Description:
The protein is built from three helices and eight strands. With about 130 residues, the protein is an alpha+beta fold. It has two domains: about 20-75; about 80-130, no CATH class.
Amino acid sequence: MKDMETVNSGTAAKLKAAGFPQPEPQRGQMWWKVEDVDEYELLVIDEYEFTHVIAYGKFEQEIILKEDFNELVYIPTATDILRGLPAKWVLTRQGTGEFWVAEISDIMHGYGHENPAESAAMAWLSTKNK
């Protein structure tokens, strides 16, 4: 997983708690499995069957029953998150290299981070806190 393509585990958990859509699992998606408070295991979906998911974790293949899947946390990309924002939001890259997500009508007031997914997540969460 490239850190610059997805949010971290803490941000993914905040997004889920705030109502960010958790999609149906698909091959190649990444999810966090909560091991303990602030401890997560990365899972990559290999197969999605009607009753279960086959994923690869730290050490081996895991089978997760469909009814237990809601305990996992989806790891969205910047693109996933931007799709959930109103059309008036844009992602740009600043001369400093930082990514910036802001409403097009107020481009000077936005959310910046070195990771575009984290910038998008901050913007998405801000729309839920209004």
